[in-house]
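Example complex used in Figure S2.
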Amino acid sequence: MTDKKNKSLFYLHELSDYKVADDYPDVRDWEVKDADNRTVGKVDGLLVNKDAERVVYLDVEVDEDVIEAGHDTYAAEASDGVHEFLNEDGESHLIVPIGMVNLDEGNKIALASQINYETFAKTSRFSKGTDLDRDYELVVFSNYFPGSTDKVSNEDAGDFYKRKEFESTSGRS
Amino acid sequence: MAEIKIEKKKAIWPWILAGLLVFAVIIYFLFFRSDTDDNVADNTATTVADSTNFANTSENNNTVDAFVTYVNSDTATMGLDHVFTHNALIKLIDATKETADKQSFDVQADLDKAKEDADKINDDPVATTHADYIKDATTKLSTALQNMQQAKYPQLSAESQKVKDASNNISTADLTLDQKHTVKTFFNDAADLLKKMN
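Predicted assembly (371 residues):
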């Protein structure tokens, strides 16, 4: 394993000299819904790439139901092999790439239209405020995009966040 | 697909500084700029004591400046009472005396008489006779000034004539209260003449 801490990834609230740009919504505290429009939690933080000056992940605090569903999932898969990151009590956060959500500004909803409930339940979680590293990002990626991690593991931060999973295809630039 | 950009916050302290400056300026203008009425009242209290000293050997133009300042500071047009008139006359007498002394020109007789009139304005509480005293004083003073002008300042004949005319305009038939503007005009013209003489 190569990477240590991903130095370019920060929680926005840690950066005292930065804020959400004018004309862009601050989606913290917005509801997060899955592909079936079912609520999975709320946005608790924004993870930003300081160099690119944009949000790359939403830090989502998932609901109790999702955590419970995750317990069931892991219980069923315990015999399949080693999962590097087993969710412990108190670990109620996960990250969602910004490019995978649509923002409903009127209703303040972040819709993760490509991620279903089961995927949310299975995704490795962390406790609030944890500094995240590339290893965790890759694990999360493998949850959302099975089979893709081989290609991304050697990319540096600049290239990594240029992936389509972090891009917007709306009119904004 | 969503995108959320971040940007650096703008520093707020320059705006706080500017706000404080504006606030300070406002406070200054509200509290530290003196009200002109207060100035007149102060002058009234302090000048009665020293204005009777004819042997005043002050620096050049002190008495003229004092008279001009006093007349100009009365923006309410002659304050409503005889105190202003008395003080203005005394200051005018002092200023005329000093100007005459500088030119070694004798106007003492007229100035003495003008001073008597000025004192009577103060001593006599009956307002109806004030106009008489004022008229007499301004006549003596304008005469003294015109004599001095003719002898020593030939180029100021128009100015001294204005002073004479202003004095002539003061009517003994009317109350001083009704001709505040006329009396004020006399003082203004006299101030103008004295400034040019010095």
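The longest helix of chain B spans residues 130-152. Chain B is about 70% helix and 0% strand.
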